[in-house]
Amino acid sequence: MNLEQLYSSVLDFQKKGNSILSRYESSTSRTITIDSSYKRLGKLSLRQEELFQEAFKCIEHGVFRSAIVLAWASFIDFLGDKIGEDNFNNLNVTKNWNISNTDDLREKASDSMIIECAVEIKLINKTMSKSLRGLLAKRNECGHPSDYKPGLNDSLGYIDEILKRIELLQKTSLP
Fold first, then answer.
1. How many domains is the chain partitioned into structurally?
2. Residue 147 lies in a domain
3. Which domain holds residue 67?
4. What are phi and psi of 27, to 5 degrees?
5. DSSP assignment, residue 118?
């Protein structure tokens, strides 16, 4: 058996092991489901991909609050980029701002305000805005001292929801 065959066998073994373990609710091997969902998405920026990969690592190590915070950070960066697909022209006209990139937007606006900007430029509707605000509230519970202690299911569900929102927005064009 050569090195390539050995490596392939190890990957097959890992895949089969994860498949078996993923049936158990407390197994972090369930993250393979999230990895599959993540691969469905189109292009994300390098920064967004890194944040998601860090979120996955947090789940694997049982650091669930951090996983939620990192997934949100990736999402809000993605949303900022999506708002800026027209070089922020629509937003600058609507808000009378002079934003030239996503970092400028993050300096000027809170996460909640970025969601509101997306509504104002008609990138998202009010229903999605309410859902995103709920996800932001959960992120805030995890990012600030609170009694909330998410588990594996909570963090997997949160990341799955974030990924679904990104997938929806990737199919959406600015008006």
1. 1
2. yes
3. 39-170
4. -85, 130
5. H
Q: What is the pTM of this model?
A: 0.80
Check residue 37 and give its pLDDT.
Answer: 62
Residue 80 in domain: yes
Instruction: Specify whether the CB–CB gap between 172 and 123 falls below 8 A.
Output: yes
What percentage of the chain exceeds 90 in pLDDT?
65
Taking residue 5's Cβ as centre, other Cβ atoms within 10 Å add up to 9
43-to-53, 67, 126, 162 alpha-carbon distances in Å: 14, 21, 26, 15
Mean pLDDT of the chain: 86
Residues near 74 by beta carbon (within 8 Å), at least 6 away in sequence: 44, 47, 48, 49, 51, 52, 55, 162
CB-CB contact of 85 with 121 (8 Å) = no
Task: Specify if 19 maps to a domain.
Answer: no
Read off the CATH number of the domain in which 63 is found.
1.20.120
* Within a domain: 58: yes
